[in-house]
Amino acid sequence: MGIIYAGMGGFFVLKDHLGMENVFPAPPFSYIFGGLCLLYGGFRIYRGFRKDYFQQD
Question: Are 5 and 40 within 8 A, CB to CB?
């Protein structure tokens, strides 16, 4: 799930370089939303790697 959020954030940040037009949301808000998605996606990826699901006692 973190990879999906990070990919979506990267798309919103880099869509101008990919040749896509921005209709909604307006450009400053799409950069803010993309940055937040990148941060949240990075947090989800970090949390997934940090968590020890197979903890042996």
Answer: yes
